[in-house]
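hey
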């Protein structure tokens, strides 16, 4: 099994196999590399004759794929057959699951004139290659499209901006990448598109990114806790009403406020023990450096005992809401008042 970057290097060198299985959470990254492979081996003038694709989620039998592979290419050394969303490589039962042994057997004897490509998209971040994928790994090239991180992510995101005629400073690019909680390139590209539309006709500024990507529920919770820490009860109650107006339930708001106070409590302790920023972010799973800096500033407005008390008040409020028939909004308002005391 190789990663996506090893595949890209092999492709540049022309080191190609004749059967690939791409798997991972990022469908856009998978599709981009498949397109690059197809472009490498097929003349665009004969694309229609030498490239066939099948929807793996709706295939009734593997026979059409075998027939396509056995057919000789036209005016070309190679032809490509793609089976996209090949769900039969997962553990779920489907129409081709019973044929998997036959499919695996055929892959060992694939004709040299054909490059057969499968791709299988994981359902969630927690998914990993299963036994079927590992069983074919020794016979075909399995490419795991894992998270793109660090400099590689920045380069990819920069390409997205360039494609849309937008330039972005290196530091701003780094900040943009740190604000992306998802590591899925298709989601990140959508966010790039939004930012480019938002800044149409002008250069991208850091303030634009803050307005675009920090006006989320998390940012509203930051503001709510900030108002509490500044003892601005009126502002805090107004923000509570705003969150409810946006459709957030009291149970969610309470859990987020509790989570925020808990994080601030842990950050406060870590800072007092002189633990480094990198260690704190790793320990507390804080992905955004910008978000971290906001929370550090917020934690400095409280003492450790105040934060501990705030967490206890949140837990008591949660217990009261779950066990008693009381007005949830009133309980949340009392929590805000008590945490500012």
């Amino acid at each position: 099994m190789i990663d996506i970057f090893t595949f890209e290097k092999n492709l540049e060198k022309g080191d190609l196999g004749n059967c690939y299985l791409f798997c991972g959470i990022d469908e856009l990254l998978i599709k981009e590399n498949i397109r690059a492979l197809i472009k490498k081996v097929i003349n665009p003038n004969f694309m229609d004759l030498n490239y066939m694709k099948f929807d793996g989620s709706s295939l009734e039998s593997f026979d059409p794929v075998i027939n396509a592979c056995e057919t000789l290419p036209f005016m070309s050394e190679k032809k490509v057959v793609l089976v996209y969303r090949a769900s039969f490589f997962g553990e779920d039962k489907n129409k081709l699951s019973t044929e998997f042994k036959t499919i695996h057997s055929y892959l060992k004897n694939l004709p040299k004139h054909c490059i057969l490509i499968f791709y299988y998209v994981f359902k969630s971040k927690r998914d990993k290659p299963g036994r079927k994928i590992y069983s074919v790994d020794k016979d075909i090239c399995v490419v795991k499209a894992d998270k793109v991180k660090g400099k590689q992510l920045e380069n990819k995101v920069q390409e997205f901006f360039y494609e849309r005629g937008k330039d972005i400073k290196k530091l701003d690019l780094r900040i943009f990448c740190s604000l992306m909680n998802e590591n899925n390139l298709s989601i990140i590209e959508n966010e790039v598109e939004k930012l480019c539309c938002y800044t149409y006709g002008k250069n991208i500024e850091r303030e634009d990114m803050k307005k675009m990507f920090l006006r989320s529920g998390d940012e509203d919770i930051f503001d709510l806790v900030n108002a509490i820490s500044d003892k601005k009860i009126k502002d805090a109650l107004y923000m509570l009403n705003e969150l409810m107006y946006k459709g957030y339930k009291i149970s969610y708001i309470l859990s987020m406020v509790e989570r925020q106070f808990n994080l601030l409590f842990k950050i406060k302790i870590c800072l007092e023990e002189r633990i480094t920023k990198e260690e704190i972010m790793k320990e507390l799973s804080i992905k955004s450096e910008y978000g971290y800096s906001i929370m550090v500033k917020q934690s400095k407005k409280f003492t450790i005992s105040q934060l501990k008390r705030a967490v206890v008040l949140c837990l008591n409020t949660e217990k009261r809401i779950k066990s008693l028939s009381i007005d949830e909004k009133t309980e949340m308002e009392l929590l805000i008042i008590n945490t500012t005391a």
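The domain at 2-145 is CATH 3.40.50.300 (Rossmann fold). The beta strands are 2-3, 19-24, 51-55, 79-84, 114-121, 141-145.
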